[in-house]
Amino acid sequence: MKGRIYIIISRKNITIRMKTSFVILLLMMAATNQLRMFIILFLSVTVHELAHAVTARLFGLEIESIYITPMGQAVKILGLNNISPIKRTAVILSGPVLNLVIAGLCSMFSYKDIETANLIIAFWNLLPSSPLDGGRFLLMTLSFFLGFSPANRICKGISTALSVLMICAGIVRGSLYPYDISLFAAAFYLWRLSKKESRMAAFDFYKAIFAGKEKYGRKQVVKNIFVPSNVPLKKVIDKICYDHVLIYYLAEEKSFLTIEEHKLVDYVAENGLDGTVGDVLALNNNIVK
Predict the structure, then answer these.
(1) pLDDT exceeds 60 at position 70
(2) What global pTM score does this model have?
(3) Could you give the count of Cα atoms lying within 13 Å of 85 in the half-sphere of its Cβ?
(4) How far is 129 from 135, CA to CA, in rounded Å?
(5) pLDDT at 288
(6) Cis-peptide, bond into residue 131, ω within 30° of zero
(7) pLDDT-based confidence at residue 128 (cuts at 50, 70, 90)
């Protein structure tokens, strides 16, 4: 990857990618006598990611790679969007939940450092910003009700606003506590990741939709929506998400014309987004009495 350097270890079809910036951060923490807290945070994040990985494996998903970055690890799970929303929620929230459980246990035995580290990791990951767990859960929830594209735009706006607020707070903190740029650095790093995540999420979604194999090859809830025939194609395409299949109903005198989602997708793939739903009816004219 251009502009990035990784230390790569492959084992049993799982690739572990360690950014060199992580090694630099480790050396900096050691030089400033913060190595103990760094190790506690790193191990707590490791447990967090293991929870994601183990839960995903319980649902039959494959782990493609593990990234070790200055913000901790990140597990890339294959096929996460192909399981039900309930199972996906379990995978997404398993990490923060385990951190909260560990924090609760440590509070009982007065392991303050470990308790604090796990609380920080849990609440950080529950922030509604991509690619954090809270951001992924928010995207999944909004997608179910609004469609993927509007949900992704909303989540991108929330992530940007949150990152800007945190960057400003980091600047203030740095002015009050000289040389403490941890919050600023974390917020800036999150801002960069959220931009990339938004693009990649959109790419993966449309790849799945237009390829058809991942979505239309499994049982799903059917959702019926009623639209006028003059609605732009882009508007109805925006209603599509991972977790249900749409059937569009268009009123026509005393009957309804129907268009199945995959036929609409096929039409858009061949003809583009210009035009209206009425244009698709010329090719798919099924009447329901």
Answers:
(1) no
(2) 0.84
(3) 15
(4) 4
(5) 41
(6) yes
(7) very high
- In whole angstroms, what is the distance from residue 197 CA to residue 84 CA? 21
The predicted-structure confidence for 198-223, as pLDDT tens digits, reads as follows: 999 999 898 888 887 667 777 788 88
Q: What is the mean pLDDT of the chain?
A: 81
Beta strand 255-260 with 286-288 is: antiparallel
50 token code pair: 């293991």
Domain residue ranges of the chain, discontinuous segments joined by +: 1-126, 127-218, 219-288
Distance between CA atoms of 81 and 215, rounded to whole angstroms? 9
Q: For residue 48, what are its two tokens?
A: 């967090």
Q: Which two tokens stand for residue 286?
A: 């099924």
